[in-house]
Amino acid sequence: MTSTTAGAMPSPPRGYRSRPARRAPRAGHGIAVLVRRHAEVVHGSRQRTNEQAERALSADEDEEDE
User: Fold this and answer.
1) How many CA atoms does the CB half-sphere of 10 hold within 13 Å?
2) Which pLDDT score is estimated for 32?
3) Which residues in the chain land under pLDDT 50?
4) CA distance 10 to 12
5) How many angstroms separate the CA atoms of 27 and 14, rounded?
């Protein structure tokens, strides 16, 4: 497992796959909580990636205007 900040759920190594029914008790949660938390993390990652792409694209457009 990778290190985490206080209060964060530990994240498995990249490419690690296991069944939610086995992972949930290890994390101290029910399956629904585990799946909901995973969805929040995926959504947040996707949102950050989109924001970074938008900033990069707008920076490229600003350079072209100059």
Assistant:
1) 11
2) 84
3) 1-4
4) 7
5) 17
**At 40, which helix (H) or strand (E)?**
helix 31-65
What tokens were used for 46? Answer: 């996707």
In a domain, 9, yes or no: no
11/61 Cα distance (integer angstroms): 37
Residue 26: predicted pLDDT:
79
User: Residue 15 falls within a domain, yes or no?
Assistant: no
Structural domain span for residue 38: 22-65
User: Structure tokens of 25?
Assistant: 């008790």
In a domain, 54, yes or no: yes
pTM of the model: 0.45
pLDDT of res. 54: 93
